From TrEMBL:
It comes from the Eukaryota. The keyword Iron applies. The lineage of its organism: Eukaryota, Fungi, Fungi incertae sedis, Mucoromycota, Mucoromycotina. Pfam families: p450. Heme binds at C456. Its cofactor is heme. This is sterol 22-desaturase. It comes from Bifiguratus adelaidae. Belongs to the cytochrome P450 family. PROSITE patterns: CYTOCHROME_P450.
Length: 516
């Protein structure tokens, strides 16, 4: 069967040869028309496709047969959360195929961790082709194994305690400015998801690049970046023809990277003159200057390289943090007793200066606010899964070998909603992260940021950023969530959002109670 299958594959690569195969060898000459030959070869191709699928599928739960040619492509265009849930519930491992890609989905904590931790020996992150085009093939994010490890080590300096201390007040300034804009809407109710995105984008640009980028350019970058997000589909047209989504995204990337390079040059000049570091670029360049001065052998990062790294940070952070911030505002409005405890904590640690700007020292004192952020991320993990692929045939457990080249997907949601680990897993309970709770005793289940060689580099910064936003918001504003039947329904677009876009209204702190 396998020999026949491989013979057929070779033949099916050329229609002409297929016709001659059937005309010339299988049946006597002159007895079969070209049309009939095409029909027979199509039928054999379809049969081969089913053989290909079922021989990989074996006993795994999944569609019994492959939809000819496209597999479950149509379902993957409009994924639903309920669809994912039923897939995860179907077995510890399950499968589908999209076009000619065989996909294995792991739904337990143990198997998901195994996939992530087995990079690069048996697995590696699976990259959609458009990503390589948009982020450029030379981007560090596509490195594997030792090269990846070494490069990544050089970036650790950007997320030290000292570096976070530089970023906290920069973020705080941006949050307060955006809150003032929301308050200027005078309590108008509207979906806030897009406004949360704008806040995140500006915070990222200012934290990463400081004020080397003028306001108008920052706005242009924010708009251009929408092109990048739009091109992040699982399936794109393979060639970046003019005016396709990927083509627009590549043009946007060129513009963004050029702006970043300009900022790097300015930072180099300022830091060489002994300036105080005000953003990630400054921290990075200062550390290179210091290491050079100390005579250490260091990795010199070129301007474009730095710009591309910052681009990956934008890429990795924008959607995930926007998702987390959206759910955080919604969950806090729906659980006023939790918001009150955040406020109480802020009063305790800020004293008389309630609306003072953020600092890392303040962040470190926000024990309860941290618990809240951990719980938001557990309940509504922005990233539900990450696609990897196998680099060889790999016995993932005792009874299944994932074939080489298959996409293998570790999922995070089931581990984060495991009722044996998190009591009442679907309830929002920040106390489970407190001294009395036991969520901390199960670090293996907290897969929000992945695990292994590619785990999230920005984890600590992301947590600080979300904490900073809700802390600062709690002292400046009151907000209401206008609930709709879609508020608790999850929509999936790379990350997860409430289906109604989180309809909210904001008022200055104290005015809602005062007016009711
Ligand atoms: C709530 C916000 C965030 C979430 C939920 C999140 C989640 C993740 C996840 C699940 C991964 C893949 C891990 C793996 O494959 O094992 C990842 C990778 C990554 N994240 Fe985040 N992330 C967030 C924010 C950020 C931020 C703010 C930054 C940068 C400032 C960042 C930078 C990165 C980078 C560079 C990688 C790739 C690391 C590598 O391949 O070595 N992330 N993140």
């Amino acid at each position: 069967m396998a020999a026949l299958a491989s013979q057929l594959t070779a033949y099916l690569s050329s229609g002409e040869r297929v016709v001659s195969f059937f005309k010339g060898s299988l049946v006597p000459k002159q007895t079969i028309s070209a049309g009939a030959a095409v029909c027979i070869s199509a039928a054999l191709f379809l049969a081969y496709e089913q053989y290909w699928y079922t021989s990989k599928k074996q006993h795994l739960p999944g569609p019994r047969w492959k939809v000819p040619v496209i597999g479950t492509f149509l379902e993957s265009l409009n994924p639903t959360f309920e669809g994912y849930l039923s897939k995860w519930n179907s077995g510890a491992l399950s499968c589908v195929s999209v076009f000619h890609r065989f996909i294995v989905i792991a739904s337990t904590c143990e198997l998901s961790r195994k996939i992530l931790l087995n990079a690069p020996q048996n697995t590696e992150p699976s990259v959609v082709d458009s990503m390589r085009k948009i982020l450029t093939p030379e981007n560090w994010i596509f490195l594997h194994g030792k090269a990846h490890q070494d490069y990544r080590r050089g970036l650790n300096v950007l997320f030290t305690r000292r570096a976070l201390g530089i970023y906290a007040p920069v973020g705080g300034d941006v949050y307060s400015r955006h809150f003032q804009e929301w308050l200027a809407l005078d309590g108008k109710a509207e979906p806030y998801q897009l406004r949360f995105r704008e806040l995140n984008m500006e915070a990222s640009l200012r934290v990463f690049l400081g004020y080397y980028i003028p306001k108008e350019t920052a706005q242009k970058i924010s708009t251009a970046y929408l092109r990048v997000t739009a091109a992040l589909e699982l399936v794109n047209f393979p060639i970046a023809l003019p005016f396709t989504k990927v083509w627009y995204a590549m043009r946007a990337r060129e513009f963004i990277v050029n702006c970043f390079i300009d900022a790097v040059k300015q930072s180099r000049v300022r830091m060489a003159e002994g300036g105080t570091p005000n953003c990630m670029l400054d921290a990075w360049i200062e550390s290179m200057i210091e290491e050079r001065a100390s005579g250490k052998k260091i990795r010199e990062f070129a301007d474009k390289e730095i710009a591309l790294v910052i681009l990956t940070f934008l890429f990795a952070s924008q959607d995930a943090t926007t998702s987390a911030v959206t759910w955080a505002f919604q969950l806090l409005a729906d659980h006023p007793q939790v918001l009150e405890r955040i406020r109480k904590e802020q009063e305790e640690i800020r004293g008389d200066n309630l609306t003072c700007n953020l600092s890392y020292e303040l962040i470190e004192k926000m024990q309860y606010t941290r618990q809240v952020v951990m719980e938001v991320l557990r309940l509504r993990p922005p990233v539900l899964m990450i696609p990897y692929q196998t680099t060889r045939n790999w016995a993932i457990n005792d009874d299944y070998v994932v074939p080489k080249g298959a996409m293998v997907i570790p999922t995070f949601y089931p581990a984060l909603h495991d009722p044996e680990v998190y009591l009442n897993p679907d309830s929002f309970d920040p106390d489970r992260w407190g001294p009395e709770g036991d969520a901390h005793n199960h670090p293996k289940n907290f897969l929000v940021f992945g695990v292994g060689p590619h785990y999230c580099l920005g984890k600590e910064y992301a947590i600080m950023h979300i904490m900073g936003i809700i802390a600062q918001a709690s002292v400046m504003m009151d907000w209401e969530h206008i609930r709709t039947p879609k508020s608790d329904k999850i929509t999936i677009f790379a990350t997860i959002y409430p289906q109604d876009g989180a309809i909210m209204k904001f008022r200055p702190r104290g005015s809602i109670q005062a007016s009711t």
